Each structure stands twice: as structure tokens, then as C-alpha cells.
């Protein structure tokens, strides 16, 4: 992958990415472990669920080495950085919802939602999780449809 393959990215963002990459490439081998990607994205203010991150890593780490070279890292990071585009975000959330709606019923059980929330913030107490779920599942159906999910993720 050459620089020509890199997405169009602001030079300032490129510098930030290079710094972040270099600080995690402690052995200076030009690659970082895919395990550190979530940490780097969180440092850059991007909260990403583990399952979505794993999916994107598998798309970007084409050789399956478990390591990302700088170009692969930039490709991955830009997938999360360009989320100013609301339509793109909705599309990604629709895809995420579809992954959790395993039986394609148009809803996910609140028990699954609870797991998603815990994954997004493992410091939430059971009471806080109950409160969030009660707020989202306003009709008390025990399920969350896509609109309720979208409201939660974007609101």
C-alpha cells in the first residue's frame, strides 16, 4: 500500500496519527499490534465497540498479521474520523444493529443492548444500565428497534 492509496486526509490529522502510531510502535518496526488500536482511537476521542473495531481491523489488516503498518492504521482511523457525516454514521449504526439483530427480526432484546452498553462503558453499574434501558425501551417491550437504537447512539 503506497501513500497514493491513503484516503484524503488533513495534514494536521496525518501528523496526529503519525505521532500516535509512533508512540505505540515502541520497537520502531513500522507496525503496531491490532490490540492497541482501540486504545489509540479512545485517546483521539473515538469510542468504538469491540465488535465493530474487530470487523474494521479484519477489513484493514488484509494480511491477517495481527499488526497494522502505518498506512493500514491511517485507513482504519479515517473510517472513524470522518463521522461528521451523519448519513454515514447512520449507515454504520444500521450495520451494527444488523449484526446484533441475528434473527433479522427488526429488533434486539434489551439483554443484548445491555451487553453493548457494558462494552461501550464498563464502568456502568447495573442500576445505571437499568435506567438507560428503561429510558430507551419506552414501551417496555423488552426489545429495542432500530429507531430506539439510533436515538440512543446519536442522542
TrEMBL record:
<dbReference type="InterPro" id="IPR050230">
    <property type="entry name" value="CALM/Myosin/TropC-like"/>
</dbReference>
<feature type="domain" description="EF-hand">
    <location>
        <begin position="88"/>
        <end position="123"/>
    </location>
</feature>
<dbReference type="InterPro" id="IPR002048">
    <property type="entry name" value="EF_hand_dom"/>
</dbReference>
<keyword id="KW-0007">Acetylation</keyword>
<keyword id="KW-0106">Calcium</keyword>
<dbReference type="GO" id="GO:0016460">
    <property type="term" value="C:myosin II complex"/>
</dbReference>
<dbReference type="Pfam" id="PF13499">
    <property type="entry name" value="EF-hand_7"/>
</dbReference>
<feature type="domain" description="EF-hand">
    <location>
        <begin position="48"/>
        <end position="83"/>
    </location>
</feature>
<dbReference type="InterPro" id="IPR018247">
    <property type="entry name" value="EF_Hand_1_Ca_BS"/>
</dbReference>
<keyword id="KW-0479">Metal-binding</keyword>
<dbReference type="InterPro" id="IPR011992">
    <property type="entry name" value="EF-hand-dom_pair"/>
</dbReference>
<comment type="similarity">
    <text>Belongs to the troponin C family.</text>
</comment>
<feature type="domain" description="EF-hand">
    <location>
        <begin position="12"/>
        <end position="47"/>
    </location>
</feature>
<feature type="domain" description="EF-hand">
    <location>
        <begin position="124"/>
        <end position="155"/>
    </location>
</feature>
<keyword id="KW-0677">Repeat</keyword>
<keyword id="KW-0514">Muscle protein</keyword>
<dbReference type="GO" id="GO:0005509">
    <property type="term" value="F:calcium ion binding"/>
</dbReference>
<protein>
    <recommendedName>
        <fullName>EF-hand domain-containing protein</fullName>
    </recommendedName>
</protein>
<comment type="function">
    <text>Troponin is the central regulatory protein of striated muscle contraction. Tn consists of three components: Tn-I which is the inhibitor of actomyosin ATPase, Tn-T which contains the binding site for tropomyosin and Tn-C. The binding of calcium to Tn-C abolishes the inhibitory action of Tn on actin filaments.</text>
</comment>
